[in-house]
User: Which sequence fits this backbone?
């Protein structure tokens, strides 16, 4: 077991390692804030994508940098900023995390349209979990079209998120963590 002095010494000698460890969660929290800005690029036709599902990318590529507690925090931030009941999207994101974590090898082996379908299935699970919880909280069925439109906009936007997160991983996170 390492002592506090050893941990502090490691942090001082490897400051960029700590920063690179915090980058995936920090960027995902930034995506949550961006997705909840009161601005619509589609004139309100489509809801903003659930950019917080960048969690999917990080669980596939660097699960050590996206622990369940961070996913819970990201989901609670989404709930807070979107005005939903606390825990609604947090539960959805944790369900997506659990599926992705359990099926990491399968999802990581997908390419092209298959990779997008894998993400779409994960998004459907997250949205379905949030929908079921909303139904239980409000004791009535919520309308499905807004959730389906958000799912579509998220799936369509995901390749851009994955590309940007891939760049961050390749150029920043990987090199700062010693090529891990």
Assistant:
């Amino acid at each position: 077991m390492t002592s506090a002095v050893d941990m502090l010494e490691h942090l001082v000698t490897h400051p960029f390692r700590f920063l690179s460890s915090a980058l995936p969660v920090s960027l995902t929290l930034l995506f949550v804030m961006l997705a909840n800005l009161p601005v619509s690029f589609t004139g309100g036709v489509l809801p903003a994508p659930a950019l917080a599902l960048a969690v999917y990318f990080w669980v596939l590529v660097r699960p050590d940098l996206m622990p369940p507690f961070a996913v819970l925090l990201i989901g609670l931030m989404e709930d807070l900023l979107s005005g939903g009941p606390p825990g609604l999207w947090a539960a959805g994101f944790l369900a997506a995390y659990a599926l992705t974590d359990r099926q990491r090898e399968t999802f990581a082996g997908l390419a092209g349209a298959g990779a997008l379908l894998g993400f779409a299935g994960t998004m459907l699970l997250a949205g379905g979990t949030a929908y079921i919880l909303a139904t239980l909280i409000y004791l009535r069925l919520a309308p499905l079209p807004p959730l389906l439109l958000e799912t579509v906009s998220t799936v369509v936007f995901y390749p851009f998120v994955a590309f940007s997160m891939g760049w961050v991983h390749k150029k920043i996170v990987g090199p700062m963590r010693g090529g891990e």
User: Anything to note?
Assistant: The longest helix spans residues 144-176. Residues 131 and 144 are 8 Å apart (CA to CA). Helices lie at 4-13, 15-35, 54-61, 68-82, 88-102, 104-108, 113-138, 144-176.
